[in-house]
Design brief:
The protein is mainly alpha-helical. The protein has 7 helices and 6 strands; from the N terminus they run αββαααααββαββ. β1 and β2 form a beta hairpin.
Length: 193
């Protein structure tokens, strides 16, 4: 009887059925609609360089200029301290300019035909199957619980909890690593001035 209630409780929360997880469909891995005929020729010639993301000494016209007033405003909004010297301020402005250049480079990436990720994880079918939680996997946890009362409240069995806590730390000796011991206590030397 209790097992039937558990199966029912596993799929219902406050009388509302829990939606089932549907597997993700395979995602497109490139922004091109069709695969190129000669993949090796495409890979041999890079389409961009990492050097383009590095800040250059000469500011390009596409990089927005950042004024001292804007920097101080951003620092105040971020609850960060205002720079104490001109050199520190110039370094912050250069750092912010290079970060903006990096963001602009990312914004120019062609993402046409690429579906956005729901989250960063392995979304292959094998990974979905591996991470899926089923009633069979949770059976051991369900066995540690019981339904009590008129309203069918779920409660952890006390004897299972006690048995689990009894084994924890049985063979652990906190004094094993102490350099000095005095009976059941370890000694801490303090430096005297």
């Amino acid at each position: 009887m209790a097992q039937k209630q558990w199966t029912k409780a596993a799929f219902m929360v406050r009388g509302v059925p829990i939606p089932t997880v549907t597997p993700c469909r395979p995602r497109a891995l490139s922004s091109t609609a069709s695969a190129p005929d000669d993949l090796e020729a495409m890979i041999s010639k890079p389409s961009w360089s990492v050097k383009s993301l590095f800040p250059s000494d000469v500011s390009s016209p596409s990089t927005p200029s950042i004024t001292q007033k804007q920097l101080h405003h951003l620092l105040r909004l971020s609850a960060l301290p205002i720079p104490t010297s001109e050199a520190q301020e110039a370094k912050m402005i250069n750092d912010l300019r290079s970060q903006l250049k990096f963001v602009q480079a990312i914004q120019h990436v062609d993402t046409e035909g690429v579906e956005p990720l729901q989250c960063i994880r392995d979304e292959t079918r094998e990974a979905e199957m591996e991470n899926e939680i089923t009633v069979a996997i949770m059976k051991d946890e369900f066995d540690k619980e019981e339904v009590v009362g008129k309203r069918g409240r779920i409660r952890r069995k006390k004897d299972v909890e006690r048995a689990a806590l009894k084994d924890v730390g049985k063979d652990w000796d906190p004094l094993a690593q102490a350099p000095k011991k005095l009976g059941r206590y370890f000694v801490v030397d303090t430096a005297k001035d």
